[in-house]
Amino acid sequence: MRIDSSTKEKLQKFVPILETFSTKWKIWVGFLVLCILFGLYALYLQIVEGHGVTGMRDNVVWGLFIVNFIFFIGTSYAGAVICSILHLLKVDWRTPIMRIGMLVTVSAAFIGPIFILLCVGRLDRLHYLFMYPRLQSPIVWDVFSISTFIIAGLLFLYLSLIKDFATYRDAEFLNVGKFRTWAYKTLSMGYKDKPEQRRQLAISMNLMSFILVPMVIIVSSVLSWIFGMTLRPGWHSSIFGPYFVLAAIYTGTGVIIVSLWVFRKLYKLDEYITDKHFRYLGYMMLALASAYGYFTFSEYLTSWYGSEKWEGEVMHKLFSPDEYGYWFLYANTVGIILPIIVMAFKSTRKTGWIAFAAFFMVSAMWVKRYLIIVPTLESALIPIQDIRDEYVHYSATWVEWALTIGGMASFLLFMTLAAKFVTIIPVSKMPDFKNNPIVEAEKNMATS
Amino acid sequence: MESSQNDLKSRRGFIKLSVVAGCAGAICGCNSFKEENTNSDRLQVLTQDGRLVDVNHAQITPMKEEELVVGKEARKGIPNRSFVMVTDLGKCKNARKCITACQKMHHQPEDKEWLQVKLLKDNDKAAPYWFPKMCFHCDNPPCVKVCPVDATFKRDDGLVLIDNERCIGCKFCMAACPYSTRVFNWDEPEQPEEILSCASSPETSVPSMIGTVDKCDFCPDMVRRGELPDCVTACPNGVFYFGDLNEDTVTNGSETIRFSQLIKDRAGYRYMEELGTQPRMYYLPPRDRIFPAERGLDNVSDEMKEMFKPYFENSSKRES
Amino acid sequence: MNKSNFNIRRELERSISYVIFMIFLISPGFLVSQEKETIKSRMGIEVIQLSESSVKTNVHLRARVNKVYRGVSDVDVNIIGVGIEEDIKLGTVKTDKDGKANMIIEDISRLEKNEEGYYTILAEFEGSEGYKGSDRDAEFKPAVLTIEALEEDSIYKLLIKSYEPDSMLPLAEQIVTISVPRLFSDLVIAEEETNDEGLLEIEFPNDIMVHEGNDLEITASMIETDDYGTLRASITKPWGLNPVKAERAERALWTPNAPVWMLLTFVGLMGAVWGHFLIIGIKLYLIRKDGIS
Fold first, then answer.
1. Is C9 buried (19+), middle (13-18) or exposed (0-12) by CB count in 10 A?
2. Coil, strand, or helix at residue B133?
3. Is there a contact between B283 and B270 (Cβ–Cβ < 8 Å)?
4. How far is A330 from chain B (nearest CA, A)?
5. How many CB pairs under 8 A join A and C?
6. How distant, in Å, are the alpha carbons of B57, C150, C201, C241 from that of C153?
7. SS3 for B262?
8. In this predicted structure, what is the pLDDT of residue A192?
């Protein structure tokens, strides 16, 4: 395959990144591996001694694990939906975002389900989910939808990588080890950018991005229905499906912004990941923040105004400073208002600020998930009346934190290793799309 | 089927063995027959051959006359029966005998209560009352709906049971149950070895298994033998009435009455009817009480007493 | 040499301590087994007259252990008809796990009545390894209770008659209990007194439920009367209502099988997505084929 000059230029920039392993990099990977080992030790304890080592008890039966599960799965959906929408609209500035977006999608899609497995008391019976599935159970919906989604994410990532793999394979100036040479050759599947191949690839990409959007909406709603289908206050709400979809895309946008910023800093990619990308993603974050803020307001106003007995109890827990009041405040100010303010003023509408806002927004969204799960479980319909505090109030133990850290480290390790295996922005040229209204509008904006 | 019968045999063998072990205990024990020295966890029992032996509490296994019902049979239910429970709130004084009887029967430790007695006060002006609560065996059970592996199921006789061999421990049923009925085995269950080695049956809910969910089962194994569940017989005040809706009859052991008559005369209701779960537990409102609610405080710890204090505080105040 | 000596000494010490330990263990146990002989048993007996000729005897053997009465299980109890001159041994029954046993005596007339016209039945436990023996007797005058069912204009009625067969005297002003058997215990439907002629006519409710079929076993009994013991008579009539049983839902949210729409939606959605995967798989195959050629 002939490599054109712009591809060559881009790839040359990545040659040192792909070819060398610095000491810093090794220390970083070592650190992540240590974190993961720490998590694995906690997992070992949990399996051997039972779930009693966690802070979960009979009333609060789910805790950090399920919070992380929603967080990662949500993040994952966002990458997919952003990439597929940008691809479908043929937005021409999408290229640098696509790779990172899809890597976030795939890695989070692998980490997320691990956390729901941590909630399972009998991992030795996991195959029962396939032997005796009950289609009425939202967990079964999740099992099928998430596993299907993982495959879809992998496929989309792979499709977007084929041309790059072929480029790596054919670039004589790229000297990587035996394994990667072999891997590039195999994974490129003999792609030579023949017209027919190009056509098939383009159709496949379009098909994938076409189904990914509805898929993410369904899969994300299914996730929310684990909670929405129960008769618990704060969960049993018809808004939950769209609420989770929005929350997922919103959080994921933040994670992608932060990832872009980190990779731009690390690999000095200012040339390719430009301020414009941050600004556009920032606008997206702004729109999503407003929408998410609207949903949040609508949800809590309805509950608070109606103040039905148990709903009222959960609202009280969320609003009262003795319980979750400050966290609720943090989740809503930092999670919704901060990104809006940052994007509202020209002086803060800068890459650094946007990344800063995105980072804290992501943390606030994590807190928000915690506030969705724990206060509801602490509000039993029949009063708990227990003198054992751990049965009344949930507080996570070190085992749960260790596994959370392990999960985060796994995510980072996946991204780190992926950035060694493929270029973090696509090097091969996307086909030109002429007369695309968005491209035109964008050009007009740039010139004015 | 073959293997389950073998399990049964080995279980019976174990009962014998445990009695023999109990005998040895009687010989070794210095003065266990003197009544003043009877401590609570040792007990004298009469064996099948009419001998008196002294055994550890934990060694007494419920004698199973009928075969243990396992597998598909346990999922069907007792034919043409439809079990129902009526709780008379006017009679409960939190004696907690039902709880201990249930724990003994199912070999549960003191801190695991399949049956709980709550103190409820419906609003500020209302009078507090004791509220025994166990599994409601709903006809539209939220827990069964969400089970991913058919481990908890609803039978034709109305009972909602758990197959501990099937349960994967996802705890979704616990989150879904609006009555917080279900109990998880967070750690290795503290049960005697001979109980843990018994064949598991949804009808006995024994043995408990780590990482799975347990709950009240309305004791169908006892019902098959024509015996009332232990909580019913243990109650000193006859709070619980248990029976078959198809016979329109419930009994608390001493009094057998028509269910429809009882519900009609005493304004029986189901707790949180608005949830649409259609429970099989009916309550009789706490009127014509035979004890003041304060009496129930006698049986709770000081910490609990402190917690319940506001329930008994009158909302009106006298200026001093 | 030294070493083996040491070993022997240690072995010796060990066996001596073992023997002492065993003596310590056994001796009090020996005393206990002596004491065990003295546990008293207590017999209970109840006589139920089922008809003119047959009588059911229920016995209940208990013993007081730790201040609580418990049934003495698996021992023999002799049932004896007591006569003026000679006793007739009617049989032997074995107690169950609750210490209960029963025996139905047909042709009661072979027993002797005393001068006042009473029969006497004795239940006797001879004692066993752990218990002292005990016995108790029950005296009763023969009497007959009959139950008849009448159906008039779909109103159910029961006619109860009672009399002494010897003298044909009625059993006046005796309480009759009408009951039907239930899963755990009998459900009392009515309790009323007989009139001077020993008769009782009573309406039977038409809304009594039976868990299967319509047959209702209706029992009339006079319980623990002074002279006659317990009298009992039963009749089976198809007067029971069979409950309207809700049809078992085959496909509901809580059944093992999912509702059809759910299945279709699931299959449809999964089919659509996996169909796309399949198409893309084929396209990838085509790309590869194109690359190789």
1. exposed
2. strand
3. yes
4. 26
5. 67
6. 60, 10, 16, 17
7. helix
8. 85
For residues C140 and C117, give the distance between their C-alpha atoms in angstroms, rounded to a whole number. Answer: 8
User: Which residue of chain C has the CA closest to A158?
Assistant: C284
Residue C32, chain B, CB below 8 Å: the answer is yes
Q: Split chain A (448 residues) into runs of 10 and give each run's mean pLDDT.
A: 80 86 93 96 93 92 94 91 88 85 93 92 93 94 93 92 90 86 90 85 89 91 93 92 94 93 90 90 94 95 91 93 95 95 92 94 96 94 89 93 96 94 82 44 56
Q: Which of B120, B131, B149 has the CB atom closest to A132's CB atom? A: B149
Element (H, E) at B217: none
Residue A434: is it exposed, middle or buried by C-beta count within 10 angstroms (0-12/13-18/19+)?
exposed
Residue B46 has pLDDT above 60, yes or no: no
Residue scoring higher pLDDT (B18 or C123)? C123
**Domain C144-237 is in which class?**
mainly beta
Contact C280 A190 (CB under 8 A): no
Interatomic CA distance for residues C158 and C125, integer angstroms = 41
* Residues of B with Cβ-Cβ distance to A125 under 8 angstroms: 149, 166-169
- Chain C nearest C-alpha distance from B297 (Å): 28
Residue B320: which pLDDT band, with cuts at 50, 70 and 90? low
Kindly determine whether residue B304 and residue A139, on different chains, have CB atoms separated by under 8 Å.
no
What is the C-alpha separation between B180 and A58, in angstroms, rounded?
8
Both tokens of C16, joined, read 């001596």
Give the DSSP H or E segment for B84.
Answer: strand B83-88
Backbone phi, psi, residue A372, to 5°: -75, -40
Q: Are C70 and C99 in contact (CB under 8 A)?
A: yes
pLDDT one-digit tens code per residue, B243-269: 999 999 999 999 999 999 999 999 999
Answer whether CATH 2.102.10.10 is correct for domain C41-140: no
- The pTM score is 0.83
- Beta strands, E only, chain C: 41-49, 55-65, 68-71, 76-82, 88-94, 100-105, 119-125, 134-140, 144-152, 155-163, 175-181, 186-193, 199-204, 216-225, 229-237
- Local structure of A227: helix, strand or coil: helix
- Partner residues linked to C91 by β-bridges: C79
Q: For the range B150-156, what are the long-range contacts, defined as Cβ-Cβ under 8 Å and sequence gap of 24 or more?
A: B150/A132, B150/A134, B150/C256, B151/A128, B151/B212, B151/B213, B152/B213, B153/B75, B153/B202, B153/C256, B154/C254, B154/C255, B155/B75, B155/B76, B155/B77, B156/B76, B156/B77, B156/B79, B156/C248
Cβ–Cβ gap A121/B172 under 8 Å:
no
pLDDT < 50 stretches in chain C? 1, 3, 28-36
The span from the first CA to the last CA of chain A, in angstroms, equals 39
CA distance B252 to A166: 80
Name the residue in chain A with its Cα closest to that of C265: A135
The nearest CA of chain A is from the CA of C245 a distance in Å of 25
Domains C41-140 and C144-237 share a fold: yes
* Closest of C127, C67, C77, C126 to residue C100, by C-alpha: C77
ipTM of predicted assembly, 2 dp = 0.88
pLDDT reported for residue B15: 38
| β-strand pairing of B183-184 with B213-214 | antiparallel
Chains touching A by CB (3 or more pairs below 8 Å): B, C
Residues in C touching A136 (Cβ below 8 Å): 253-254, 258-259, 262
Distance CA B254, CA B101 (A): 18
At CA B120, angle to CA B114 and CA B123, rounded to 5?
150
Q: Which residues contact C116 (CB under 8 A, 6 or more apart)?
A: C141
Q: Is A136 on the interface with C (CB under 8 A)?
A: yes
Structure tokens at C64: 């007081």
pLDDT band at B1 (very low <50, low <70, confident <90, very high): very low
- List the domain boundaries for chain C: 41-140, 144-237
